[in-house]
Amino acid sequence: MMQTPLIAALQRIVGEAHVLLGDATAQYVTDWRQRTHGQALCVVRPGSTEEVSQVVKVCAQAGVSIVPQGGNTGLVEGSIPQDTGQQVLLSLRRMQAVRAIDAHNMTITVDAGVVLQSLQKQVDEAGFLFPLSLGAEGSCTIGGNLATNAGGTQVVRYGNTRDLCLGLEVVTADGQVWEGLQGLRKDNTGYDLRNLFIGSEGTLGIITAATMRMYPKPAAQLTAWTAVPTLEAASALLALAHQHLASALTGFEVMNQQALALVDSHYPHLRVPMWQDSPFCVLLEASDSESESHARTLFERLLEEAMEQEMVADAIIAENLKQAHDLWHIRESITLAQAAEGVNVKHDISLPVSRIPAFVEETDEALRALVPGIRLVNFGHLGDGNLHYNTQAPEGGDAAAFVAQFEGAIGDVVYQAVLRHGGSISAEHGIGTLKRDKLPHYKSPVALQLMHRIKAALDPDNLLNPGRVL
User: Are 156 and 254 in contact (CB under 8 A)?
Assistant: First the structure.
């Protein structure tokens, strides 16, 4: 590839080894689901905030747009370049410093490229807990988690990534650096800039560092796996769990029979319990500040009452950490099992918990009428109303042909039902490119107008991740 003045300038900023060209960009320009392939002018890998700032400035001067990227684990095609070959992909993976741990303030300040699993480990070694947990934690970065406001399995207790963040450092569209890493829990000095950048998917600024909350480690953590007859029973179990466990309830995941059947088919060594005889299974987790015996007593009382009220048909409580890990591994393997089965149609939606049973019944029926034999793979974070409502081709069918023929129609059925039941078409994955054109149909016109005004104010030349979200 012929060297341009822009590429030469980028090489001077970050070093020639960290400006990737041609075939060296391949791993950065394809999305995690292998659905979309882009093409970058180059991939730039800065090692510091100052380098990010300088990269943004020279790209702005050249009028070249930038696509920020963390671990490239997103599911809405929001962190890969377009196919023009004219965008700079800015990878933050080299920025992996832990800048500070403040035990008294219970915060940790890290670069945006720190991998989530590494952050969890650093906090654990400091004697605390960092509760954000999701399937891609071995490769996703905290910057990406913040840019998409990722959720995960413990939102019911600790909230989304937004709720775990106390400060940000951001490079703006003109290359300035906003330093907001103080880690304050109270700061009423004007507009909430931190929360404006969180969830903006790199369209308003580039997150380069963050100050995150740490929590005391629980004295005990217990996991239970239950078989439930209906989603109504699962919702009732959730309400009962809140009564018995209160803030100790940290996870509440629901999985339908089809989701677990795929795990059993592709990963039989995981030995999925109870799935063959139950339409749904629920995975509960409780974190106790007193002791394991106290936690077990609360869990046993909860499950006894749930069985008496016929919410639960059967249940097991993990006897040790390995058993608990094995149960969670089953839940986390659903997405991998779907991928192994073939390309599929995914929906990341949220609804009031009370509306989920009616939504699923109505939408299941509509989709079975649309595509006879369609496999409905429903699972997710029932505790916070987030359902991964996915569909797979009929057994033995051509998966690629199924997606090509029916993805649009399936999406219309699902999203219209979401709208009727007062939900959102994106719970934790974001909008990216995949849902961008759907957003105007399901978002308030006033809200969209305000979003466009914010984008125009913070990125007037539309250089940061253009064509995403809006």
Answer: no
- Give me the architecture of the 98-216 domain, per CATH: 2-Layer Sandwich (3.30)
Find out whether 108 and 97 touch, Cβ atoms under 8 Å.
no
- DSSP-derived secondary structure for 77-105: S-SS--TTS-EEEEE-TT---EEEEETTT
336-420 maps to CATH 3.30.70.2740: yes
Mapped onto helix, strand or coil, the DSSP state of residue 438 is: coil
Predicted confidence (pLDDT) at residue 163 exceeds the cutoff of 80: yes
What are the tokens at 459? 């990125």
pLDDT in tens, 352-377: 999 999 999 999 999 999 999 999 99
Find out whether 385 and 328 touch, Cβ atoms under 8 Å. Answer: no
User: Is 3.10.580.10 the CATH classification of the domain at 5-91?
Assistant: no
Reply yes or no on whether the pLDDT at 78 is more than 80: yes
Strand 87-91 with 66-69, pairing: parallel
Structure confidence by residue, pLDDT tens digits, 125-157: 999 999 999 888 999 999 999 999 999 889 999
Domains 220-333 and 336-420 share a fold: yes
Query: Amino acid identity of 38?
Result: G
Which residues are paired to 66 by β-bridges?
88, 464
Give kind and range of the element (H or E) at residue 285. Answer: strand 280-288
Find the mean pLDDT for residues 166-186.
97
Q: Model's pTM, two decimal places?
A: 0.92
H/E element holding 153? none
pLDDT digits (tens, 9 = 90+) for 302-316: 999 999 999 999 999
Contact 259, 336 (CB under 8 A): no
Q: How far is CA 33 from CA 29, 74, 293, 343, in A?
A: 12, 9, 43, 8
